[in-house]
Amino acid sequence: MIRELALTCSECRKTFIAESKLLYKDNFKIQDFSNIELVCQDCFDAWQNYWQIESAVFFEEFSSLYVNITLQNGDSIPKLDCTPMDDIVAVGNDIPLNAQKKLYQIYSKWYDEKMKDVLKTCTFTESFMRTSFTCETYGGKKYEDIAFRFTRQGAFEAESPVPEDIRKQVVSAWHRYELSNLPTPEIDDE
């Protein structure tokens, strides 16, 4: 038996005629085709137009990433949890793909700025009476073959000036380097 199903928009509640495709909301709880939440073209277009992003500010809080979004219509959506992946940023709200891509462009610039002074590599060279480091940041700054030592009080001293944020990262990398190069204790098999 063939049945008829009126297409009713779940947003505006008007019946509509589908053109070349059906638009619907994702809902993984729905088990029956007749319960799918269809969306008419007008409501879909309104949704797309609403999510025109003017600006976005990313920030981290308690090891989670959030974004404050300002739309072109002046609306502000604060503190959305978000996850960057591939070329989009998925957020806690249902937003169009083009808005997710726009967020990724903004996120990418924010991330590059955030990471520009973070060490990408740091290697140590130990020779007789001289220990030195060579490192590079994600932003491309290089510090090559700079001798350093720790005073008896534990203060880090370098032969050339090193910015404070880089110094802290080199010290942290040195401590990890030292731990990874500890001799392994011998175990008696008796």
Q: What helical percentage do the residues reach?
A: 10-25%
Q: Specify the biggest β-sheet.
A: 4 strands, antiparallel
- What is the CA–CA distance across the termini? 82 Å
Oligomer: single chain
Content-based structural category: alpha+beta
How large is the radius of gyration? 28 Å
Secondary-structure element order, as H and E?
Answer: EEHEEEEHEEEEH
Provide the residue-averaged pLDDT.
89
Number of helices: 3
Q: What low-confidence regions span 5 or more consecutive residues with pLDDT below 50?
A: none
Provide the β-strand percentage band. 25-35%
DSSP, total strands? 10
How would the global form be characterised? elongated
How do the strands of the widest beta sheet line up side by side? 3-4-5-6
Distinctive features:
190 residues; four-stranded antiparallel beta sheet; alpha+beta
Structure, described:
This protein is an alpha+beta fold. Helix content is 24%, strand content 34%. It is built from 3 helices and 10 strands. It has helices at residues 41-50, 97-115, 164-180; strands at residues 23-24, 38-39, 53-61, 64-71, 76-85, 88-91, 119-127, 130-137, 142-150, 156-158. The strands form 3 sheets. The protein has a 4-stranded antiparallel sheet. A 4-stranded antiparallel sheet has the order 7-8-9-10, with helices on one face. A hairpin with a 2-residue loop joins β3 and β4. The longest helix is centred in the middle third of the chain and has 19 residues, at 97-115.
